[in-house]
Amino acid sequence: MRCPFCGNPDSQVKDSRPNEEGSAIRRRRACLSCGQRFTTVERVQLRELVVVKQDGRRAPFDRDKISRSIRIALRKRPVSDEQMEQIVTGVVRQLEASGDTEVASARIGELTMDALKEVDGVGYVRFASVYRDFTEARDFSEILTLMESKTQQSEQKD
Q1: 79, pLDDT greater than 90
Q2: CB count, 10 Å around CB of 151?
Q3: DSSP string over 80-146
Q4: What is the pLDDT of residue 1?
C-alpha cells in the first residue's frame, strides 16, 4: 500500500480488525520510509460495476459518491455514521447481487431513496429533492403527501 504522505510503496500493517458486520477489514499501517501512520479499509468486491448515466455515458461505479450523497442528506440528523455506512453497504450489496455488471444511475438513486426512507424521512426528502431535481415548493408537497399516504396504508395493515 502506497503511503499517502511520502508515496513510498512499502508499509507495515500494525493492526487489523473487521468492521461493518465483517464485510470489510480496517488496517492501521505505518510507512517504512517516513514513519507516518494511516488507515486503509479493504472490502470484498464481487464484480466491477459500471454505471450507465441517463445520457448513455458509462462510468465506473464509485461507492464514495453514494456515501457522500447520503452524508449530505443526513447532515445534522440523528443518524450515526455506522447507520450511514450500513445504508451504503446495503445499496452496494443489492447492486452486486443483481448479477448485472451495468447498472442504470436511476436504479442506484431509487435503491438509495428506498434505504433512506426506512431510516430517516427528512434525509429521504432531502435526497429526493436533489435526485429528482425539485424546482418548486409543490414538488416537496407532493412527495410529503405520498409519504403520508404510504404511512397510513402500512398503519392500516397492522
Answers
A1: yes
A2: 11
A3: -HHHHHHHHHHHHHHHHHT--SEEEHHHHHHHHHHHHHHH-HHHHHHHHHHHTT--SHHHHHHHHHH
A4: 84
**Angle in degrees, CA 26, 30, 35, rounded to 5:** 155
- C-alpha 129/C-alpha 157 separation (Å) is 29
CA dihedral 77, 62, 50, 4 (to 10 degrees): -170
DSSP helix/strand/coil, 44: coil
Specify the DSSP element, H or E, that contains 18: strand 11-19
- Is 15 in contact with 27 (CB distance < 8 Å)? yes
Q: Which of 51, 47, 3, 44 is nearest to 21 (CA)?
A: 44
pTM metric for this prediction = 0.67
CA distances to 53, 54, 78, 147 from 121, rounded to whole Å, are 26, 26, 11, 8
Strands 58-60 and 50-52: antiparallel
> What cell does 100 get?
448485472
